[in-house]
Specification:
The structure is a single chain. This protein has 16 helices and 26 strands. It has about 525 residues and is α/β, with parallel strands linked by helices. The chain has 2 domains: about 15-275 and about 480-495, 3-Layer(aba) Sandwich (Aldehyde Dehydrogenase, Chain A, domain 1), CATH 3.40.605.10; about 280-460, 3-Layer(aba) Sandwich (Aldehyde Dehydrogenase, Chain A, domain 2), CATH 3.40.309.10. A 7-stranded mixed β-sheet has the order 16-19-20-14-13-22-23, with helices on both faces. Strands 10-9-8-11-12-25 form a 6-stranded mixed β-sheet, sandwiched between helices. Helix 3 packs across helix 8 (about 205-215), helix 4 runs antiparallel to helix 8 (about 205-215) and helix 5 (about 120-145) packs parallel to helix 7. The radius of gyration is 25 Å and the shape is globular. The N and C termini lie far apart (about 95 Å). The mean pLDDT is about 95. InterPro entries: Ald_DH/histidinol_DH, Ald_DH_C, Ald_DH_CS_CYS, Ald_DH_CS_GLU, Ald_DH_N, Aldehyde_DH_dom.
């Protein structure tokens, strides 16, 4: 480690014991409306990356259970009541789920905190956001509609319907367990679809607890099925099966490309939310204090383990030196440590392997000429406690991996620019196009950059704000399709045209008498 490093915060006495007491003791898979606590497969255990203690012990689905889940989802869609229910009926159930998420918010937040290593204060905000998304989806359940065309002629009428697409496989990542499944499942349910959900085997706790809330809310049997297991053992059959109509995936670009190839065999519809290498662009006239805070937040929020992380700072050369000095001073004070401490802003890294990968990426950047101003390596804690110091890299060139590739850790790479055109070119120089931020008091500058950047979201004088009303997704290697927004339910539908004709029809060929 070459830069200044923070000391680790420790949780108050008794905080870990109190958190463990909130963890459900009988986690279960959800298949065909029944809870499954034992299978023929070995159980999966999860150690907290912040504490080195076991925080989860989960049944792992076997192939027979996967088959049961697929059959149940197919039957629930083809012959069950859910697709035939009114939008109002589905909306009422989704609102009940939101109520139950709010009721069990502390359980859900604790599960995500302990399994991911994220600050508990952050996890609580994510659970509140998830409940809000379920309520937004409930509203869309009643608003889903088609079109009619009465302008085709006096004896013709065109009606366009939206039918639920069918069975949807949802594969979700480990970094935002409940939040990301909540960006998919309620919208599919609002459309009348049935679902097969595979959370990451590293952080399945909150998604399994959601399964209990779904059944408590009254969801019909087989409409949602939740299975825990590895990608090859569970994810692959859920994606490959011909009875599945759509795949919705959030995760790495590499896995997303593989799943797209799998979907192509049956021409399944796909929705992919993948990686990002997102910049914040700081102009000399930008609000310096607000920008510096947002830059730290974008780079180090969720320990940088976020597809939307602002992992690049593109700063105007005229202010680069003073900005780096101020940023380094602030970065060195960011509170890192036990996610149960109320002041912690950066928690633990998900696994030891990932911690090593982050360190290797920083070492590679240094070998290529980058300077580590703050951080630069793992922070020493217990043998099973995984922390990486918030790291600031200067002298990063556009051709470096640190400027182009997703590190997925608390590492902020700094590049410089002279003109808005150069800033746009640097932003667009990676394979990704998920999001970006621009800081300037000049509306023309913000709009010029916003229109020139090839990304799904461009924040102006803020960063990583969001709302269920706003679509989320990316260009190019950052994925296909959008989640959230008023058309989120439509993504889980197929359009069907009904072409009606009244009165006599002119024959194409009538033989002569």
């Amino acid at each position: 480690m070459t830069g200044s490093t923070p000391s680790l915060l420790s949780a108050p006495d008794g905080a870990l014991a109190a958190a463990l007491a909130r963890v459900p003791t009988t986690p279960a898979l959800l298949v065909a409306g029944r809870f499954v606590t034992e299978t023929s497969q070995p159980r999966l255990t999860r150690q907290s990356p912040a504490h080195g203690v076991t925080v989860g012990d989960y049944p792992q689905a076997d192939r027979a259970l996967v088959e049961d889940a697929i059959a149940a989802a197919r039957a629930a869609f083809d012959t069950g009541p859910w697709p035939k229910m009114t939008g109002a009926e589905r909306a009422r159930l989704l609102h009940r789920v939101a109520d139950l998420i709010e009721r069990d918010a502390e359980i859900l937040a604790t599960l995500d905190c302990l399994e991911v290593g994220k600050p508990l204060t952050q996890a609580r905000a994510e659970i509140a956001g998830a409940a809000d998304i379920w309520r937004y989806a409930a509203g869309l359940a009643r608003d889903l509609h088609g079109e009619s065309y009465a302008t085709l002629g006096a004896n013709k009428l065109g009606v366009v319907l939206r039918d639920p697409i069918g069975v949807v496989t949802m594969i979700t990542p480990w970094n935002f367990p409940l939040l990301i499944v909540s960006q998919k499942l309620p919208f599919a349910l609002a459309a009348g679809c049935t679902a097969l959900v595979k959370p990451s085997e590293v952080t399945p706790g909150s998604t399994l607890h959601l399964g209990r809330l779904l059944m408590e809310a009254g969801l019909p049997m087989g409409v949602a099925n939740i299975l825990v297991g590895t990608g090859p053992e569970v994810g692959a059959p859920l994606a490959e099966d011909g009875r599945v109509d759509m795949i919705s995936f959030t995760g790495s670009t590499r896995v997303g490309q593989h799943l797209m190839a799998v979907a192509a065999r049956d021409l399944k519809k796909v929705s992919m939310e993948l990686g990002g290498k997102n910049p914040q662009i700081l102009f000399p006239d930008g609000d310096r204090d607000a920008a510096l805070d947002a830059i730290l937040f974008g780079g180090f929020f969720n320990a940088g383990e976020c597809c939307n992380a602002g992992s690049r700072l593109i700063v105007h050369r005229a202010i680069a030196e003073e900005v780096l000095k101020e940023l380094a001073a602030r970065a060195a004070t960011v509170p890192v440590g036990d996610p149960l401490h109320p002041d912690t802003r950066v928690g633990a890294i998900i696994t030891a392997d990932h911690l090593q990968k982050i360190g290797a990426a920083v070492s590679e950047a240094q070998a290529g000429g980058a300077r580590v101003l703050v951080g630069g390596g793992a922070l020493k804690a217990g043998p099973d406690q995984l922390y990486f110091a918030p790291t600031l890299l200067a002298d990063v060139r556009p051709d470096m991996a640190a400027a182009r590739d997703e590190i997925f850790g608390p590492v902020l790479s700094v590049l410089t620019f002279e003109s808005a055109e150069e800033a746009i070119a640097l932003t667009n120089s990676t394979a990704y196009g998920l999001s970006a931020g621009v800081w300037s008091r000049d509306f023309d500058t913000c709009l010029t950059v916003g229109r020139g950047v090839r990304a799904g979201t461009v924040w102006m004088n803020t960063f990583m704000d969001g709302a269920p009303e706003l679509p989320f997704g990316g260009y190019r290697a950052s994925g296909l399709g959008r989640e959230l927004g008023r058309r989120a339910v439509e993504d889980y539908t197929e359009e069907k045209t009904l072409h009606l004709h009244t009165g006599p029809r002119t024959g194409w060929w009538l033989p002569r008498a």
